[in-house]
């Protein structure tokens, strides 16, 4: 089969790879769609991101497909089933696992980061990581389950209360997911901050109450001009020091700052502890997606979250290399690779 193999910094090559036979507790699926994630781009660029990826690994961890083979001990899925994949597998016996914090598992493996992933025609992995798709959900929607699951964990940690005013910085795929989930969680008012004004229309369509262009002036002043109440939760979905500082600056008293965007490991920000004290800010972040895929798929199935408009392009697996080398793809929204 063909698979897109990460071979080292800025080298991703489509290669012929043997399909691995499933062990007794594994399955093989025919991949239908696999999303390109910021993490894939970080790995490709050689950044140390959320995952350490050994060269020689097929990337892709946001995917869904049809089961074509099952191991002798598999009980939860059958050949022909349509499944979405939770890429992470936790050991269950390390200290974080036994403290109920499995996303920090010391022995975690990740499909598409530490083992062969979904930028391929087939993928073999543990059956327990497969989640059946409801009949009314497309395989492309199933492939979006993983990023939605990551956002859900961030939302869980954002302490949103019914009636809150929530500010989301960045109207990319993640920002637009976070915005919709914040609203479903009870936020009454959502303000989007996004310098690319072409993205505002989509944000309004998906439920934003106000979109601001940070180039129009100081964000605090802009919020005051629009008579926006005190921000209860600010969610940063860009991952730059400047936008994290903005999220902290505009967050209201007793509020939560969710630093969701992945920064480079070297990034630092100047922080005044006295300021955090005076506003009693809750500064936090979110690390991957511990057991959130089920809820993510239910949100998509029930229409609680609109994800079709977030799919910016579908690219054939044979053209995957250009998605990584050509920066113009970054502007398109979520890109699905179709084997
Ligand atoms: Zn991802
Ligand atoms: Zn563990």
Would you give an account of this structure?
With 339 residues, this protein is of the alpha/beta class. The protein folds into two domains: 2-149 and 289-338, Quinone Oxidoreductase, Chain A, domain 1 (Alpha-Beta Complex); 158-285, Rossmann fold (3-Layer(aba) Sandwich). The protein has eleven helices and 18 strands. The strands form four sheets. Strands 3, 5, 6, 9, 10, 17 and 18 form a seven-stranded mixed beta sheet that branches. Strands 13-12-11-14-15-16 form a six-stranded parallel beta sheet, sandwiched between helices. Helix 4 (145-156) packs across helix 5 and helix 4 (145-156) packs across helix 10. The mean pLDDT is 96. The structure holds zinc ion (2 copies). One zinc ion is lined by residues 37, 39, 61-62, 146-147.
CATH topology of the largest domain: Quinone Oxidoreductase, Chain A, domain 1
Q: Which class of secondary structure composition applies to the elements?
A: alpha/beta
Q: What is the number of E strands?
A: 18
What is the number of domains?
2
């Amino acid at each position: 089969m063909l698979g897109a193999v990460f071979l080292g910094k800025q080298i991703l090559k489509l290669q012929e790879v043997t399909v691995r036979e499933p062990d007794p507790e594994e399955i093989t699926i025919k991949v239908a769609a696999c999303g390109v994630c910021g993490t894939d781009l970080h790995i490709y660029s050689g950044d140390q991101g959320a995952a350490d990826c050994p060269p020689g690994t097929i990337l892709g961890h946001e995917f869904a497909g049809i089961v074509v083979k099952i191991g002798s001990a598999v009980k939860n899925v059958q050949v022909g089933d349509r499944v979405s994949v939770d890429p992470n597998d936790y050991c269950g016996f390390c200290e974080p696992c036994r403290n109920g914090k499995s996303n920090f598992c010391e022995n975690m493996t990740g499909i598409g980061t530490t083992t062969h992933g979904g930028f391929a025609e087939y993928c073999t992995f543990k059956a327990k990581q497969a989640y059946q798709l409801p009949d009314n959900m497309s395989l492309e929607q199933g492939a979006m389950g993983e990023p939605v699951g990551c956002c859900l964990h961030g939302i869980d940690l954002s302490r949103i209360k019914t009636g809150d005013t929530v500010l989301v910085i960045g109207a990319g795929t993640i920002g637009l997911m976070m915005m919709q989930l914040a609203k479903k969680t009870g936020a009454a008012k959502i303000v989007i901050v996004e310098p690319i004004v072409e993205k505002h229309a989509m944000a309004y369509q998906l439920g934003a109450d106000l979109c601001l262009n940070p180039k129009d002036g100081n964000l605090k002043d802009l919020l005051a001009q629009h008579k926006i109440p005190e921000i209860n939760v600010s969610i940063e979905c860009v991952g730059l020091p400047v936008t994290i500082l903005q999220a902290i600056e505009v967050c209201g008293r007793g509020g939560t700052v969710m630093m969701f965007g992945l920064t480079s490991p070297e990034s630092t920000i100047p922080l005044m502890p006295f300021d955090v004290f005076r506003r009693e800010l809750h500064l936090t972040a979110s690390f991957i997606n511990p057991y959130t895929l089920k809820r993510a798929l239910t949100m998509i199935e029930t229409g609680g979250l609109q994800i079709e408009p977030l799919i910016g392009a579908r690219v054939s697996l044979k053209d995957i290399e250009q998605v990584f080398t050509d920066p113009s793809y970054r502007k398109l929204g979520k890109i699905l690779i179709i084997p």
